[in-house]
Design brief:
With about 900 residues, the chain is α+β, with helices and mostly antiparallel strands. It is built from 28 helices and 25 strands. It is found in: Cell inner membrane.
């Protein structure tokens, strides 16, 4: 089976837990060997010499010296193949054929296993566990499909009574995640369509921005194919978020076309032309800003870069295509589909328009008040930034959120020197408990394998718990009790009652292969000349200190420097006096108490090992050493106890190295209410307290990636701000206005942090990806107001009037686009099932950020324009183009009404609704 699975493309790294290879096991009886005067070396030589493959030549092989009629090979029986043949191997024979000692006289041969250190069970019954690993670059879903198909084909040739079961398939999580995100995608589309229809109140008008969705999505798929991207969680996240973005530009266009038709009484074609003159600049600016934020992210390295890359590029492609659609297809469709004339609105739409009009009037009054009291507003803005800094520190950090991946892992840690039988008795508690749980479909236990060390150890066991399908577990009646977290907490509470050993169920790592388990993996490294006992002392102090930290739970280490061992000292002087070679002493002990590979045999067209070892009953206790004999120089058999002494000592059962230093692995989990980032900080602080100067910390798995990526999100955020600033500076040809646009970003940051704080979420990679997007989305709202304010100012309005007019006219498209995006993200924020936590993280952050950028920022953005433009004009001392057309005193009198007598009056621009 293993060979067939390895031939599947992408699955050539498949393996079997333990080593179930065939072996010819030769079980020796030391007492019979002593009686017959046979040593372990005698058996080794006899088996090796009498079980070989010889090439003996051929008859008639050239040169012959004379003509021959035939030439053919000479063959021999070669290697032995049957246990009976091995039993008849002659160990010793005296001259004349008398006193022949055969292998069966001192032991027995049987076809067995190469390694008995691993015992695997499935559903409590003996089983062989095959692990199929995906090759890097292969498609996991394709590999899983081919493996299942191959297993069905192989099953046809199974012996009677043999069957297979798929205990765990990690691609089920991938399938469920993709399926859920696809559902989220369509839910988002429906919500966006509803929002657009409510605002535009016309099926014809609604159709125009809605058509931007399929066009942009199809174009995005083409771009993904060109770049070699696959349909995965990250690209699908990008698609879902892009739904609310790709309609933005089309909404801006169609809303402005309808406004021009209603206000200026233009036909659809002329209204579309006028609208494009007005909004082409903002649309281009928005597309450039979004791309400026996302495209540089593609050049980040490491796992964080990979997480950002596909998400960011997917959105960037969709934004570019949606911009092209808004500049070409949307105005063309508007001129064809829209009808001139004003239709009286009734019912809900009439109520909605009246309510929105009242809201607009209230908003306009509030904007005037904010501009009038701009110093107070600036103080409030500064206070909000300070509060954001406080919240940034208060929100716990993490690398990736833990997910319900459809299975759990676990480890059984037994006391030192515990036998495999004792380990199996404790691991049976795992099987008994989980097989009673309604959420569990399979229980696989591998006794003799340490999950935490990835090593074979008699006093350790690993277990893998497979869950039932997500659909079944996430039904309304099961969702609270059958999710992975509930099962994990219940198992930990129940299995912690087992006193014979430690049973530690854990989550799998968030990204398969990124560490052996979920949680934090830390290494304490000895970088000086410390001995292993000294290293153990530091580790014990560290573990004791961690018990005082409330952030930490289940801080464990499998390292033990005081494992019981039996030390055998060989008296070399006495051995030489008795004529016993030292290597004979060690060879005898290795053969009897260990195992010795001495030869090979053929079976099923393959070569397998021949292994010598004492019968189990002769190696059960230390006293069994007394039954081993070696031959002295006189030919007499000398008991091993004559030349060796034994005593019990302690020592490490396993010494590992990390970064080439002797090191001990520590596994820690977060206590309820704490994040992985707080765990990292707590571990570092504890290490600083207890570790000497010549010791250091190392990280692996998710902890290493979290430490590596700790500054990446800040770098991406700052770099995005710089790129947006430079593009806007080029767009407006001045430095002041881009600053005003970027001042909208803190509102989005404030809203995002407040949302995740209120919901108890963490500042992880997905949240940080959302923050990167919020830079562009917050700037988008500001651009819509600033762009129109600049046009109004160039038309001759005062700075104050330009700001107020732009805010009033742009409120509807801002609310429409923001609400479409927010509702498009709601399915992410309320998701359940596979990858729900990732969707919660990114959905909650962007919804909170957009609420902040829409509900709060729209009151401040006009004020920012007013302050910055006033300062710029006073500093420049020059008129803005078009100002000369305004009444005297209005072009430079930038004071809002109420700040001084004789304030400016509002001079309508060409785009005022009362024009």
């Amino acid at each position: 089976m293993l060979d067939a699975l390895k031939r599947i493309p992408g699955a050539n790294q498949s393996s079997i837990f333990g080593n179930p290879d065939y072996a010819m096991r030769i079980w020796l009886k030391p007492d019979r060997m002593a009686q017959l005067g046979v040593t372990a070396s005698d058996v080794q030589k006899a088996v090796s010499n009498q079980n070989q493959q010889f090439a003996v030549g051929s008859i008639g092989q050239s040169p012959t010296g004379a003509p021959v009629e035939q030439s053919f090979a000479v063959t021999t029986t070669g290697r032995l193949a049957d246990p009976t043949e091995f039993d008849n191997i002659i160990i010793r024979a005296s001259s004349g054929g008398a006193a022949i000692v055969r292998l069966k006289d001192i032991g027995r041969a049987e076809l067995g296993r190469k390694d008995y250190s691993i015992r695997s069970k499935f559903q409590g019954k003996p089983a062989t566990v095959l692990a199929v690993y995906q090759q890097p670059g292969a498609n996991a879903l394709d590999v899983s499909k081919q493996v299942r198909k191959s297993l069905e084909e192989l099953k046809k040739s199974f012996p009677e009574g043999l069957d297979y079961s798929i205990a765990m398939d990690t691609t089920e999580f991938t399938r469920a995640s993709i399926s859920d995100v696809v559902h989220t995608f369509f839910e988002a589309v429906v919500l966006v369509v509803i929002v657009v229809f409510v605002f535009l109140q016309s099926l014809r008008a609604t159709l125009i921005p809605v058509l931007a969705v399929p066009v942009s999505i199809v174009g995005t798929f083409m771009g993904m194919m060109a770049l070699g991207f696959s349909i995965n969680m990250l690209t699908l996240f990008g698609m879902v978020l892009a739904i609310g973005i790709v309609v933005d530009d089309a909404i801006v266009v169609i809303e402005n076309v309808e406004r021009n038709m209603n206000v200026h009484k233009l036909n659809p074609k002329d209204a579309a032309k006028r609208a494009m003159d007005e909004v082409a600049g903002p649309v281009v600016a928005i597309v450039l800003v979004l791309c400026a934020v996302f495209v540089p992210v593609a050049f980040l390295s490491g796992i964080t870069g990979q997480l950002y890359k596909q998400f960011a590029i997917t959105i960037a492609i969709s934004v570019v295509i949606s911009g092209l659609v808004a500049l070409t297809l949307s105005p063309a469709l508007a001129s064809l589909l829209l009808k001139p004339g004003h239709h009286e609105k009734k019912g809900f739409f009439r109520w909605f328009d009246n309510a929105f009009e009242r809201m607009t009037h209230g908003y306009t009054r509030m904007v005037k008040l904010v501009i009038k009291r701009f110093l107070v507003a600036l103080l409030l803005f500064a206070g909000m930034i300070g509060l954001s800094v406080v919240m940034m520190k208060a929100v716990p950090t993490a690398f990736l959120p833990p997910e319900d991946q459809g299975y759990l892992l676990g480890a059984v840690i037994m006391p030192d020197a515990a036998s495999l039988d004792r380990t199996g008795e404790v691991s049976q508690h795992v099987t008994d408990y989980f097989m009673k749980q309604p959420a569990v479909s399979s229980v696989t236990v591998v006794d003799g394998f340490s999950l935490l060390d990835s090593q074979n150890k008699n006093n350790a066991s690993a277990f893998f718990i497979g869950f039932k399908s997500f659909d079944e577990r996430y039904e309304s009646k099961n969702i609270r009790t059958q999710n992975a977290r509930a099962v994990l907490l219940g198992a930990y509470a129940e299995l912690s009652k087992v006193k014979e050993g430690i049973i530690l169920p854990v989550n799998p790592p968030s990204i398969p292969g990124l560490g052996t388990t979920g949680g934090t993996e830390m290494w304490i490294q000895s970088k000086g000349d410390a001995t292993i006992p000294q290293l153990a002392g530091v580790v014990n102090q560290f573990l004791a200190k961690t018990q005082q930290r409330p952030e930490l739970a289940r801080v464990t280490s499998t390292f033990n420097a005081s494992s019981q061992q039996l030390l055998v000292n060989v008296d070399r002087d006495k051995a030489e006096t008795l004529g016993i070679p030292i290597e004979e002493v060690y060879s005898a002990m290795q053969t009897m108490f260990g195992s010795l590979y001495v030869s090979q045999f053929n079976r099923s067209s393959r070569l397998w090992q021949v292994i010598l070892q004492a019968e189990p009953t002769y190696r059960m206790k230390p006293q069994d050493l007394e039954q081993i004999f070696v031959r002295g120089k006189s030919g007499d058999m000398v008991p091993l106890k004559s030349v060796v002494t034994t005593k019990y000592v302690t020592g490490p059962d396993l010494v590992t190295r990390f970064n080439n230093f002797p090191a001990v692995k520590i596994t820690a989990n977060a206590a309820p209410g704490y994040s992985s980032g707080q765990v990292l900080s707590a571990l570092e602080e504890t290490a600083d307290e207890v570790m000497p100067a010549d010791y250091g910390l190392g990280w692996s798995g998710e902890a290493y990636e979290a430490k590596t990526a700790s500054g990446t999100s800040s770098l991406v955020f700052i770099f995005g701000l710089i790129m947006v600033f430079l593009i806007l500076a080029a767009q407006y040809e001045k430095w002041s206005l881009p600053i005003g646009v970027l001042l909208a970003v803190p509102f989005a940051l404030f809203g995002a942090l407040l949302a995740v704080l209120l919901r108890g979420l963490e500042n992880d990679v997905y949240f940080q990806i959302g923050l990167t997007m919020l830079v562009a989305l917050a700037a988008k709202n500001a651009i819509l107001i600033f762009e129109f304010a600049v046009l109004n100012r160039e038309s001759g309005e005062t700075v104050y009037d330009a700001a107020v007019t732009a805010a009033s006219e742009r409120l509807r498209p801002i609310v429409m686009t923001s609400l479409a995006f927010i509702l498009g993200c709601v399915p992410l924020a309320i998701a359940t099932g596979a990858s729900a936590n990732s969707r919660h993280s990114i959905g909650t952050g962007v919804i909170g950020g957009m609420l902040g950028a829409t509900v709060i920022a729209v009151f401040f953005i006009p004020m920012f324009y007013y302050v910055l433009e006033t300062m710029s004009e006073k500093k420049g001392g020059k008129k803005t183009p078009g100002a000369g057309a305004a009444p005297a005193g209005t072009a430079h009198d930038a004071k809002p009404p109420g700040t001084a007598s004789g304030g400016p009056t509002v001079t309508p621009s060409a785009r005022r609704e009362d024009d």
